[in-house]
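ARCHIVE CARD
CATEGORY: sequence design from structure
SOURCE FIELD: tokenized fold
FIELD CONTENT:
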């Protein structure tokens, strides 16, 4: 399977969300950043907007919950139409139970790690997940500079996924652009969230195609990314 490019609607025009969602048709998933002003210092949208987006586009929704108490709230996002739900390791009270609940509802279960959170304590949890998200900026805002220091963590996460023979996806998010995507792909990522690099481009759909091509040339399609 090819590398996946997930445009982040955090960089879109929130007054024109439906059109902005359709502007990136051809993307693999639409990345929806849910922020509660507690887990991160920013506030975006909730389940009713996810439900509206679901009706506005055929692109599946990849919801990244940057919220406290994901154990309580994540199921609402599956009900609203998310095809993938990512909760944060730092916020989940019972990550195994939560991942199982998301999967039982019929969505893909994913867990995110903030830059300072190591992957190693979560090794035994990986089989419960469909995707692991390594944040490459501090969560909260689009348009930040990519943290190169996260590349070794991406590599170590890829090694753990391969060690266990898992088919799960490895997503990166934050500062992913034409200048950084190849480094992420070489390190082992196969799902790429890009906000400003897509919505800041004159032609967002062409930006998605360009990023995908770069990621695949750098090796992202060879990491065992399975649909
Ligand atoms: O989750 C986040 C930020 O917390 C990201 O999804 C950003 O929205 C990505 O934006 P760029 O760094 O690509 O501009």
């Amino acid at each position: 399977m090819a590398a996946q490019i997930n445009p982040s609607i955090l960089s879109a025009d929130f007054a024109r969300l439906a059109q902005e969602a359709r502007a990136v048709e051809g993307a693999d998933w639409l990345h929806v950043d849910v922020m509660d002003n507690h887990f991160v210092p920013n506030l975006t949208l909730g389940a009713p907007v996810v439900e509206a987006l679901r009706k506005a586009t055929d692109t599946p929704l990849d919801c990244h919950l940057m919220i406290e108490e994901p154990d309580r709230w994540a199921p609402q996002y599956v009900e609203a139409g998310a095809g993938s739900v990512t909760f944060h390791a730092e916020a989940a009270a019972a990550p195994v139970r939560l991942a199982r609940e998301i999967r039982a509802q019929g969505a893909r279960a994913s867990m995110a790690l903030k830059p300072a959170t190591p992957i190693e304590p979560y090794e035994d949890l990986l089989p419960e997940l469909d995707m692991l998200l390594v944040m490459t900026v501090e969560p909260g805002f689009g348009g930040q500079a990519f943290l190169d220091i996260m590349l070794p963590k991406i590599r170590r996460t890829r090694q753990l996924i391969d060690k266990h023979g898992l088919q799960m996806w490895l997503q990166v998010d934050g500062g992913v652009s034409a200048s950084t995507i190849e480094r992420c792909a070489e390190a082992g990522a196969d799902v790429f969230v890009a906000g400003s690099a897509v919505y800041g481009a004159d032609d967002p759909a062409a930006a998605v195609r360009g990023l995908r091509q770069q990621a695949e040339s750098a090796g992202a399609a060879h990491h065992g990314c399975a649909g």
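CARD ANNOTATION: The first strand starts at residue 4 and ends at 7. The chain has a mean pLDDT of 96.
SHELF: design records, drawer C
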